[in-house]
Here is the input.
Amino acid sequence: MIKLLFLLLSFCCLSLSAVPAVSGGRPDSAAIREIQNSFPGWKLNSSARCAVSRDNGLWAWKIVLERQIDANIKSSSARDGKGYIIIVMVPDVGIDPGRNFISLFDWNIPGNDLKQFTVFLGRGRGYYWYMKSDIARLNFFREKMRLSGGEDMDRLMADALNVTDFDLFTSRAAVEYFRNKGPQPVPLIMKSMREWQKEEKNPPVQHMIALKLTGSSAGAEELMKLSSSPDHAVAHQALKLLVEEPYLGSDSFYRRALAVPEYTGKIIRIFRERKKTDLILPRLRKLVKAPRTLQQYTEVLAALRELEKPGKADIPEYAACNDIMFLMMRMGETSDTIKYVPIEAEGAGSPSKLAEEERKRIEPHLEILRKSKDTEAVFAAAVALAAYSPDSKVIAKEYSSRVRRIGVEILRMLPADFVFAHFDMLGKSLVLPREQSLLRMIRYEYGGR
Here is the structure.
């Protein structure tokens, strides 16, 4: 068979004048025009027969498209500043050449920033199609022309996940290919991931995103397994994907993951959307007594207040503290306010005058907290303010400092025994050094025993 194929295409990439005239030995103009229209921004470099059989008139037609590459793209690739697409068409006359023809054609082009693939695309529209291009345009053209057979694109794309070229173009295109592809490619993605992990130190983020995009229970199952990986970076990325829409994990998985501080709030929302919050109430009641971070403590307490009192729109104590934070903002202290410049020491724009006006604005909200009967909600909201430590490049230190001071002031409204008991509870449960440091800071500012 290979010998027959070789005889059929006995010499390759000949110029048009080098082959004898063959009746109908070219694709119709509409087919060539459709190829050109498929790639806007590319222009025709050449279009000619590149092989012919003297015996039966079978021929192959080669089309080369080109376009200029952005001169701002820096690359060490040896190229002429252009990108190329090569397409070869062989008439479908009952002989299936398959991928064996690939080696018979000249695919040489200058170097490129993007990984180039040379594949048998498949059969359709009266031709067998071969193409050399980057992975995204290969798949686009195959789907546009509705070709069948050809290269196993699932396998090709799974392998492409491991390619690192300019701006990770190939792996990004491969990731997107797997969107809504279902369970079939999952084993191929996992095989590709294992190969990546043998060679690379970076976590296989692209493979995990591909698993997620398949939208399948098989992909979700692999992500749930990866979320228990001893490699913290892998586990973190898998869990991060599972708490983003669409939520593919099982109820039991999310219930177990509820204790992971970074994702507690998101997982509570998942159960709320699934209308299954009763499944996590017992877990939340335990977590509020042994939170791992201050944020987890405030999120869990808020969820309990909401779930234990159905129909409650919000938590007044949390709302009051949020309003206080907003009302304490001054010009120039956040990225969305104008830079404040004092006019005069005792004038309307002086710091002392601003502080006076600020106090008047927040006083009604402080009164809400003083009158509250939910002592723990006041405590949790006040701790959140007292621990406020945003990036000083975005939020002014002066603003952060005032917020922390008002948080401590609110804590001093509460019974001291209650405050110290909860400080002790948090001190035993907080696991991260940064969290322990924040708690020590709050205790120091609060004073007392």
